[in-house]
């Protein structure tokens, strides 16, 4: 049986910006305000929705939906391409606000982060008051809204931040965690995707109380090592610390083809563009890697990857491109049509084994 120690009592805040990309666009361009806005591409493109404004969400539009589907749901929506430089600048300003209260900050993406305020710089003491102060500063200084979740661990704080969006603040204290976790739908649990949620529901596991009925051994039998995490988290035990310095494991980029194709010339042109993007990101962060990975997604959404490691580090666009072409040839896709291509460089440090899975892909600086 797992050691059922009491949870570590930290003061954790999870800040999640509200419809971030769309909100920045509506702030900067008054003509977008109050209207359904979709950031991601044009309705006739192969792009996907990066963010939809709350006006657009009323039509059922969500992130990762195809722009063509979004257009079907709301033909009057405004479609714009993302301006990542603008979003990155705003993210840096938000992070400066965070640093007024703590240096224990773990960014998850451009628009969300964990903060550990167990000991805050200003001696405020109350994590709820700190969260409200951060929200007020973001609204007053940046003319944007954020939602905050406050609790004793990362998992509960993250779920709490999503409970009263937009512009919400939700506190779930130690005495409330047990009942909160028991009522939580399993699809809200960290690490439970669509496939795992479907499996759980097939087992009549719909909420935390159902999950809690299973022993640790039963959960491990059904879900592997993740079962250990589910066993602990449903009991409110999450000892993961806020990591203020997250080591970059990989740098990559990917793009969707305008039309599914198996034409070498078209795929080579796209790989050249992606190689140049990856090289620029490596240069920006002064990195070079020993492992290159090519990602290929086919028209039926089947996904494969091919990798190669080198005795020396690489970071130049032409070298990345040449190696990506070789990996594409080795993949031998035949007559299968390709929908998306991506390139990732990893293994920046010699102490990382070649066969170690790489995580934390760096796309944009927080």
Automatic annotation (TrEMBL):
<keyword id="KW-0235">DNA replication</keyword>
<feature type="binding site">
    <location>
        <position position="111"/>
    </location>
    <ligand>
        <name>Mg(2+)</name>
    </ligand>
</feature>
<keyword id="KW-0963">Cytoplasm</keyword>
<dbReference type="GO" id="GO:0006281">
    <property type="term" value="P:DNA repair"/>
</dbReference>
<dbReference type="InterPro" id="IPR043502">
    <property type="entry name" value="DNA/RNA_pol_sf"/>
</dbReference>
<dbReference type="InterPro" id="IPR043128">
    <property type="entry name" value="Rev_trsase/Diguanyl_cyclase"/>
</dbReference>
<keyword id="KW-0515">Mutator protein</keyword>
<dbReference type="Pfam" id="PF11799">
    <property type="entry name" value="IMS_C"/>
</dbReference>
<dbReference type="InterPro" id="IPR024728">
    <property type="entry name" value="PolY_HhH_motif"/>
</dbReference>
<dbReference type="GO" id="GO:0003684">
    <property type="term" value="F:damaged DNA binding"/>
</dbReference>
<dbReference type="Pfam" id="PF00817">
    <property type="entry name" value="IMS"/>
</dbReference>
<dbReference type="Pfam" id="PF11798">
    <property type="entry name" value="IMS_HHH"/>
</dbReference>
<dbReference type="GO" id="GO:0006261">
    <property type="term" value="P:DNA-templated DNA replication"/>
</dbReference>
<dbReference type="GO" id="GO:0000287">
    <property type="term" value="F:magnesium ion binding"/>
</dbReference>
<dbReference type="InterPro" id="IPR050116">
    <property type="entry name" value="DNA_polymerase-Y"/>
</dbReference>
<dbReference type="InterPro" id="IPR036775">
    <property type="entry name" value="DNA_pol_Y-fam_lit_finger_sf"/>
</dbReference>
<keyword id="KW-0234">DNA repair</keyword>
<dbReference type="InterPro" id="IPR017961">
    <property type="entry name" value="DNA_pol_Y-fam_little_finger"/>
</dbReference>
<comment type="subunit">
    <text>Monomer.</text>
</comment>
<keyword id="KW-0479">Metal-binding</keyword>
<dbReference type="GO" id="GO:0009432">
    <property type="term" value="P:SOS response"/>
</dbReference>
<protein>
    <recommendedName>
        <fullName>DNA polymerase IV</fullName>
        <ecNumber>2.7.7.7</ecNumber>
    </recommendedName>
</protein>
<keyword id="KW-0808">Transferase</keyword>
<comment type="similarity">
    <text>Belongs to the DNA polymerase type-Y family.</text>
</comment>
<comment type="function">
    <text>Poorly processive, error-prone DNA polymerase involved in untargeted mutagenesis. Copies undamaged DNA at stalled replication forks, which arise in vivo from mismatched or misaligned primer ends. These misaligned primers can be extended by PolIV. Exhibits no 3'-5' exonuclease (proofreading) activity. May be involved in translesional synthesis, in conjunction with the beta clamp from PolIII.</text>
</comment>
<keyword id="KW-0460">Magnesium</keyword>
<dbReference type="InterPro" id="IPR022880">
    <property type="entry name" value="DNApol_IV"/>
</dbReference>
<dbReference type="GO" id="GO:0005829">
    <property type="term" value="C:cytosol"/>
</dbReference>
<feature type="active site">
    <location>
        <position position="112"/>
    </location>
</feature>
<keyword id="KW-0548">Nucleotidyltransferase</keyword>
<dbReference type="GO" id="GO:0042276">
    <property type="term" value="P:error-prone translesion synthesis"/>
</dbReference>
<keyword id="KW-0239">DNA-directed DNA polymerase</keyword>
<keyword id="KW-0227">DNA damage</keyword>
<dbReference type="GO" id="GO:0003887">
    <property type="term" value="F:DNA-directed DNA polymerase activity"/>
</dbReference>
<feature type="domain" description="UmuC">
    <location>
        <begin position="12"/>
        <end position="193"/>
    </location>
</feature>
<feature type="binding site">
    <location>
        <position position="16"/>
    </location>
    <ligand>
        <name>Mg(2+)</name>
    </ligand>
</feature>
<keyword id="KW-0238">DNA-binding</keyword>
<dbReference type="InterPro" id="IPR001126">
    <property type="entry name" value="UmuC"/>
</dbReference>
<feature type="site" description="Substrate discrimination">
    <location>
        <position position="21"/>
    </location>
</feature>
């Amino acid at each position: 049986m797992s050691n059922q120690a009491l949870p570590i009592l930290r003061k954790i805040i999870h800040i999640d910006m509200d419809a971030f990309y769309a909100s920045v666009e509506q702030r900067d361009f008054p003509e977008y305000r109050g209207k359904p806005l979709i950031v991601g591409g044009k309705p006739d493109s192969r792009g996907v929705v990066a963010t939809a404004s709350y006006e657009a969400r009323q039509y059922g539009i969500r992130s990762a939906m195809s722009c063509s589907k979004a257009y079907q749901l709301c033909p009057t929506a405004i479609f714009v391409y993302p301006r990542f430089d603008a979003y990155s600048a705003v993210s840096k300003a938000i992070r400066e606000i965070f640093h007024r209260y703590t240096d224990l900050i773990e960014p998850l993406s451009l628009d969300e982060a964990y903060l550990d305020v167990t000991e805050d710089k200003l001696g405020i003491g109350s994590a709820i008051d700190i969260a409200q102060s951060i929200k007020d500063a973001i609204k007053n200084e940046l003319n944007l809204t954020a939602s905050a979740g406050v609790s004793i661990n990362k998992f509960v704080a993250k779920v709490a931040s999503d409970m009263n969006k937009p512009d919400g603040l939700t506190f779930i204290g130690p005495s409330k965690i047990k009942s909160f976790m028991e009522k939580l739908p399993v699809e809200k649990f960290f690490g439970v995707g669509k496939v795992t949620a479907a499996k759980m529901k097939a087992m009549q596991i719909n909420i935390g109380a159902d999950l809690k009925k299973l022993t640790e051994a039963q959960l491990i039998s059904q879900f592997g090592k993740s079962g250990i995490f589910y066993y602990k988290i449903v009991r409110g035990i999450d000892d993961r610390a806020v990591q203020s310095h997250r080591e970059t494991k990989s740098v990559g980029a990917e793009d969707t083809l305008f039309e599914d194709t198996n034409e070498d010339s078209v795929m080579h042109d796209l790989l050249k563009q992606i190689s140049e993007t990856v090289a620029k990101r490596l240069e920006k962060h002064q990195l070079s890697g020993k492992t290159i990975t090519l990602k290929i997604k086919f028209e039926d959404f089947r996904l494969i990857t091919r990798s190669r490691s080198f005795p020396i580090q690489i970071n130049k666009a032409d070298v990345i491109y040449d190696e990506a072409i070789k990996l594409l040839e080795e993949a031998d896709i035949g007559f299968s049509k390709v929908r998306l291509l991506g390139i990732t460089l990893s293994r920046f440090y010699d102490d990382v084994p070649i066969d170690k899975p790489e995580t934390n892909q760096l796309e944009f600086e927080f």
